[in-house]
């Protein structure tokens, strides 16, 4: 029997209208007024908005000592039906083999939302350059590089990033880059340790805004020289946003996102008593309020095109993991959970506060993430033929974000105590009801791999050689 959702208000990135949605065989079959309800299972969405299921373009399910896909149902509970993970390169193996292993052994059968991957470079050998031409046919259309994290396998030097860019552009692959000056962070860290700084605020002091601004600008220059489109992940500073905007104004294909916590959490959290500040140690560091304002502005004016969660829920949470750094901030594991509450935070802090419209919400959290990941319009859209990933949203709900409602597996919530307006009333994954008003109601582990297409939206305005 087909499913018919009636009486809701459909919201897309450009419009808002009343219509019915007919779902058959996991797909949206039709969107029209007054679809005949005979023989269909009916869902009444009166007074509710209907969005495409959320798409989170930036999650970490495994590396950085984070939980794997076993907690990925948290995304569904919060209205996100597709997550895109970074498949870590295994030591001594290729990016492509590592991606297949991560997909087949870690995700398949365990992931609850649908899933896709970016490749992630964690080996600095030039063997990388030989495998780039084979990446797209294997399902890798975005390739992640870290300019930070010196002294770990994550760090990649500029020369390799540059050489990779020169090849990526010929295959429609977009480099996704974590921009922070890793060398400067190491120097500042050593100086702070020497001065006797031990508390979590040391994390911010050792990775201040300038280390991000500099790396963002450096990457923009490298990309210009290589003539390659780029995507800059988790922008957090006024300077980074200004650098991106300047490049865009000059016609360079430079794109970027921010992540939820950089829109709401400021450095005062790092200074909380009893080592609590460690809960918010993540890379890049949480910023002072003036940067939060600047990042919102970059969201509002379109400089940044999406909001991911950068979900990185460290196994052991605060008590068992973060506290490893109780005497030394450099030993606090990086990362904050956030895939469950991303949509609540963006809605409450963005739409409800009048910073962005409902259409922007869809553009930033569903449509653009899907486009950036090469999986639009299968995901991120309410269109006939798209997967029936549907989020019925009750805007009248008012509550608080609390760890006791979290499925993320950690012992704290990044957004603990924040106001929550709106709730994922019903969450459908390919037509199947998975979550309802904060509870998982579907079966875990049914997520399906979504194969991306190359030449994502980052190539739309790219004119090679011009
Ligand atoms: O602290 C964070 N965000 N950990 C995840 C890794 C990253 O840099 O995105
Ligand atoms: Zn990063
Ligand atoms: Zn990340």
Please outline the helices and strands.
Layout: E1 3-6, E2 9-11, E3 16-18, E4 20-24, E5 27-32, E6 41-44, E7 49-52, E8 54-59, H1 73-77, E9 80-88, H2 95-107, E10 114-120, H3 127-131, H4 135-138, E11 142-146, H5 158-168, E12 174-178, H6 182-195, H7 201-206, H8 209-226, E13 230-232, H9 238-249, E14 254-259, H10 289-300, E15 306-308, H11 317-321, H12 342-351, H13 358-372, E16 390-400, E17 419-429, E18 432-436, E19 439-440
Parallel strand pairs: 1-6, 2-7, 8-9, 9-10, 10-11, 11-12, 12-13, 13-14, 14-15
Antiparallel strand pairs: 1-4, 2-3, 4-5, 7-16, 16-17, 17-18, 18-19
Helix pairs in contact: 5-8, 8-9, 9-10, 12-13
This protein binds N-(aminocarbonyl)-beta-alanine and zinc ion (2 copies).
């Amino acid at each position: 029997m087909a499913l018919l959702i009636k009486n809701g208000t459909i919201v897309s990135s450009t419009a808002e209208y009343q219509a019915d949605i007919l779902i058959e065989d996991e797909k949206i079959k039709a969107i029209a007024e007054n679809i005949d309800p005979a023989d269909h299972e009916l869902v009444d969405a009166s007074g509710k908005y209907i969005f495409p299921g959320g798409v989170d373009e930036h999650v970490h399910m495994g590396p950085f000592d984070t939980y794997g896909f076993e907690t990925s149902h948290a995304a569904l509970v919060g209205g996100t039906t597709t997550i895109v993970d970074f498949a870590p390169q295994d030591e001594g193996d290729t990016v492509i083999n590592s991606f297949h292993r991560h997909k087949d052994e870690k995700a398949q059968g365990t992931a609850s939302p649908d899933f896709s991957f970016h490749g992630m470079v964690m080996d600095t050998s030039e063997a990388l350059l030989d495998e780039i031409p084979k990446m797209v046919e294997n399902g890798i259309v975005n390739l992640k590089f870290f300019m930070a994290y010196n002294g770990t396998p994550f760090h990649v030097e500029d020369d390799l990033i540059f050489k990779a860019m020169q090849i990526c552009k010929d295959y429609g692959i977009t480099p996704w880059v974590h921009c922070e000056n890793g060398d400067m962070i190491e120097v500042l860290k050593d100086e702070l340790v020497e001065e006797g700084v031990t508390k979590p605020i040391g994390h911010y002091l050792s990775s201040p805004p300038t280390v991000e601004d500099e790396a963002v600008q450096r990457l923009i220059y490298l990309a210009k020289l290589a003539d390659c489109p780029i995507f800059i992940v988790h922008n957090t500073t006024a300077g980074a946003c200004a650098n991106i905007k300047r490049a865009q104004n000059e016609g360079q294909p430079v794109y970027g996102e921010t992540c939820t916590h950089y829109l709401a959490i400021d450095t005062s959290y790092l200074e909380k008593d009893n080592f609590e500040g460690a809960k918010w140690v993540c890379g890049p560091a949480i910023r002072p309020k003036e940067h939060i304002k600047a990042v919102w502005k970059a969201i509002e004016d379109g400089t940044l095109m999406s909001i991911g969660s950068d979900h990185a829920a460290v196994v052991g949470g605060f008590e068992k993991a973060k506290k490893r750094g109780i005497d030394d901030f450099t030993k606090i594991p990086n990362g904050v959970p956030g895939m469950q509450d991303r949509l609540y935070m963006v809605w409450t802090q963005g739409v409800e506060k009048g910073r962005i419209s409902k259409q922007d919400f869809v553009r930033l959290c569903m449509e653009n993430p899907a486009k950036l990941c090469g999986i639009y319009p299968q995901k991120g859209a309410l269109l006939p033929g798209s997967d029936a990933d549907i989020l019925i949203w009750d805007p009248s709900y008012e509550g608080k974000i609390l760890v006791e409602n979290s499925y993320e597996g950690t012992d704290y919530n990044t957004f603990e105590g924040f106001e929550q307006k709106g709730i994922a009333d019903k969450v459908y994954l390919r037509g199947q009801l998975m979550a309802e008003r904060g509870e998982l109601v579907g079966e875990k582990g049914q997520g399906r791999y979504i194969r991306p297409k190359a030449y994502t939206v980052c190539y739309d305005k790219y004119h090679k050689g011009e």
